[in-house]
Amino acid sequence: MTEPVRILVVGGGYVGMYTALRLQRQLKTELRSRAAEITVVTPDPYMTYQPFLPEAAAGSISPRHVVVPLRRVLDRCRIVIGEVHSIDHAKRTATLSTLATEEEGAGHVRLGYDELVIAPGSVSRALPVPGLADHGIGFKTVEEAIGLRNHVIEQMDIASSTRDPAIRDAALTFVFVGGGYAGVEALAELEDMARYTARYYHNIKPEDLRWILVEATDRILPEVGEEMGRYAIRELRARNIDVRLGTRLESCENRVAVLSDGSRLPTRTVVWTAGVKPAPLVAATDLPRNERGRIVCTPYLTVDGVEHAWAAGDAAAVPDVTAGEPGKEYAPNAQHAVRQTKVLAENIAASLRGQPLKEYAHAYAGSVASLGLHKGVAHVYGRKLKGYPAWFMHRAYHLSRVPTFNRKARVLAEWTLSGLFKREIVSLGSLEHPRAEFELAAAPPPAPKDRSPGDSPGESSA
């Protein structure tokens, strides 16, 4: 009996999940006859649909419906919850750790494979800004999105109860760094949510909240075009959002955001969304990388000059065959990542069967962005939309793209209910420390203080 072809998928994000899902269908016969096996190694047991993170932060969508459980969707794959630390493709081995290896104290384990799909995605590109590591908040995971929602409402609670005007002003000042999708959509949704929430505070008005968007270049949302970007700026400024172009965050030490234009903004909230970079794992492989640290690929989504290795998504530099200029690569965004997985799965199956491969070729269709409830911008197939039509298109597009019918139905139901009932304004910050109350209850009582022989309970010594 011949050994099965071992396919290792590193990463459970867009590329990892969709590639494994499509391989299940492409290799149905091989999987059933045990001629092939698929292993997915991922740090989390779910895939996060990141375009819905701003709405999850605003409370429009439940966090459960922003994630897709991998074990349910990839029922014919082996799911390993762990972290790959390095890959030696020359030896066809990956070094990883799992929750079990940590408990066993056995250290890292090696996993062999025959075909490698490397899709670890990206991480926030944090710059060496003083104080950023201590006070900054990211916006790439569902945990960060819900944590930010709780944080914003908690700041309003602090501002409502303090008697110190400096603390109040800092609590009600929110600084977002980065004018791309993540920064603009997160700020717009949370500003919407906070403005609505303010009606339930007797001493906070919407105009008391100060929102600042800091962008180092001269425009925001470059994907939707210059005209729609200018419209987005006008919309945000009309809502009293301070948009600062050509400005950088230089420091946020001691809870003071210092900007390159000389401004000093006391704040308890600095949200960092200023770009991404390939996951650190990419540098711990023997695969070729370009100057930006991304894996060099061919139009067939194979790793350039390497056999039996495939890549796509944020960590892959895929040549844009539809571009007129040589050397241009596809942008590392969800639009291309999801489409690349279809070609990737088909090419892996074709390679195993000795069939020819096909190139990934997709002309840029356009982009949509939400600016809060009933507001948005879009530039799709040359058509420019703004306001309600763009917002509706944003929702329709992402509803069509979120995986599984189960998730589509749940998200649609939540949108329908949110249109009929009031927003939820509850902060569940205690969820981040679920054992805190029990630890306090279970702690031994404090020892009684020693008294002098002549002291009585109601007396104090002179």
TrEMBL record:
> Could you confirm whether the keyword Oxidoreductase appears in this record?
yes
Annotated region Disordered: where? 437-462
The enzyme class is oxidoreductase
- Alphabetical list of InterPro entries matching this protein: FAD/NAD-bd_sf, FAD/NAD-binding_dom, NDH-2
Domain named FAD/NAD(P)-binding is located at 6-340
> Which domain of life does the protein's organism represent?
Bacteria
Task: Keywords in alphabetical order, please.
Answer: FAD, Flavoprotein, NAD, Oxidoreductase
Q: What is its EC number?
A: 1.6.5.-
Q: Does the keyword Hydrolase apply?
A: no
Q: Name one GO molecular function term.
A: oxidoreductase activity
- Family the UniProt entry places it in: Belongs to the NADH dehydrogenase family.
Q: What is this protein called?
A: NAD(P)/FAD-dependent oxidoreductase
